[in-house]
Amino acid sequence: MRFRCQLTNIVTFTKLTASLSSLEKICWMRLEDGVIRFTIIPDQGTQVWAQLPVDAIFDETSYTLQSNSGVINLEVPIGALYRSLRSAVGATSAQLRLTKKGNTPLLALTILASSWTTGNNAIGVADPDAPPGPSDWEDMDHGLEGSVPSRRGPGTGPRERETVITQEIPVKVLHESAIEGLHEPRCRDPDVHIILPSLIQLKSISERFTKLAGDAKAAGSGFGSVTSPKLELSANMHGSLRLGIATDALKISSVWTDLVNPPLDPGQFSEEELAQLPSEKMRAIPGDDEASWARVRIDGKDWGRVLSVGRLSPKVVACEFVFWVWMIGVGGTDWCRLC
Predict the structure, then answer these.
(1) CB 3.0-4.6 Å disulfide test: which of 38, 154, 225, 246 passes with 50?
(2) Per the domain annotation, does 98 fall within a domain?
(3) Worst-scoring range by mean pLDDT, 24-38, 199-213, 319-333?
(4) 28-59: per-residue pLDDT in tens?
(5) What is the DSSP string of 45-62?
């Protein structure tokens, strides 16, 4: 079993692992020819089924994958991987490989970093005991008695210095039999698909609503709230999104308008099939009719963690509480799915 590759898009990989680490501590990383999959399946809460082409984050020419089945499944502590990748941002190059120390499999991240130093030795400090060289006299003012040479020393210009750093992340290699029962959930056709507004703004408002509802619930009961308040997220096929929360003590909501309902690919449906889709039926209902709104109730804290995908890409399409993160890379358009 062998895996080795050069990283070409460290920033995207770092943002992806940062988003995943906010949802769960352990991630299932599946390495295949041409595709890398990241999956998170918690006991409860948001599932992640992310799929990226190899060239989105790795150098395809150096991508080496060898195993009996042609696939390597790893259980990765995603927070440790994120911290290692964060230190690689700005590095000259970075390589990720699967290795072993004793009986412990490891993901080894080797970083090559360069910096500039001054001086003529390894640490950029001139030798004070070295005899004066010809260049030591170039700053001397011969018109002044008692002038002394500058102590720059020969060859004391800036020098490039390279540093190699290797970080090892303990992982667990999963046998195919251990994950053969795991399958991406199948979702029905969505009632609404809409591009969300700024996730930073949406996250800020969501956290504010959750805190207000939690404080109101705690004040009313006299005890701290054990469960997170439920937010109501609703949208229609006329470019409107509404986020609200209602308790015995308060009822508030925020509404966004003029958002985009992205069209579906007509090549995947006939005209008759397209007309029968739930989203097209919802589009036919006037926007001022409450029947045109699709609604879901979501856990406030879990929703806040989901919105951390905003650091990965500013464009997210929500389809009946399935989120497709639209990533634009060098190789084209890639999608990351959160359920």
Answers:
(1) 38
(2) yes
(3) 319-333
(4) 999 999 899 999 888 777 788 888 889 889 99
(5) S--EEEEEEGGGTB-GGG
pLDDT (mean) for 56-65: 90
309 domain-assigned: yes
- The phi, psi pair for 50, rounded to 5°, reads -105, 135
Do residue 138 and residue 105 come from a single domain? no
CA distances from 63 to 95, 109, 219, 333 (A): 10, 14, 57, 20
78-86 and 10-21 helices cross at what angle (nearest 10)? 140
* In a shared domain, residues 285 and 266: yes
Containing structural domain, residue 68? 2-114+162-179
In a shared domain, residues 172 and 36 = yes
Residue whose C-alpha is closest to residue 19's, from 40, 45, 36, 34? 40
- Regarding whether 237 and 147 lie in a shared domain, the answer is no
Q: Is pLDDT larger for residue 177 or for residue 108?
A: 108
Are residues 124 and 104 part of one domain? no
In the structure encoding, which two tokens stand for residue 154, read together? 């020969």
Q: Any idea what the CATH number is for the domain that residue 306 is in? A: 3.10.150
Does 95 fall in a domain?
Answer: yes
Amino acid at 128: P
Q: Where are the alpha helices (DSSP H) in the chain?
A: 10-21, 78-86, 176-179, 199-221, 271-275, 278-283, 300-306
Query: How far apart, in whole angstroms, are the C-alpha atoms of residue 219 and residue 192?
Result: 36
The string of pLDDT tens digits covering residues 141-153 is 444 444 444 444 5
- Can you point out the beta strands (E) in 247-288? 251-256
What's the structural domain count of the chain?
Answer: 3
pTM flag (> 0.85): no
Report how far apart, in Å, the C-alpha atoms of 203 and of each of 206, 293, 304, 306 are.
5, 21, 6, 9
Single out the residue of 325, 298, 286 nearest to residue 243, CA to CA.
Answer: 298
Q: Please indicate, yes or no, whether residues 245 and 278 belong to a single structural domain of this protein.
A: yes
Instruction: Decide: 21 and 78 in contact? Cβ < 8 Å.
Output: yes
In a domain, 336, yes or no: no
Assess whether 37 and 167 both reside in one domain: yes
Q: Which two tokens stand for residue 323?
A: 């989120």
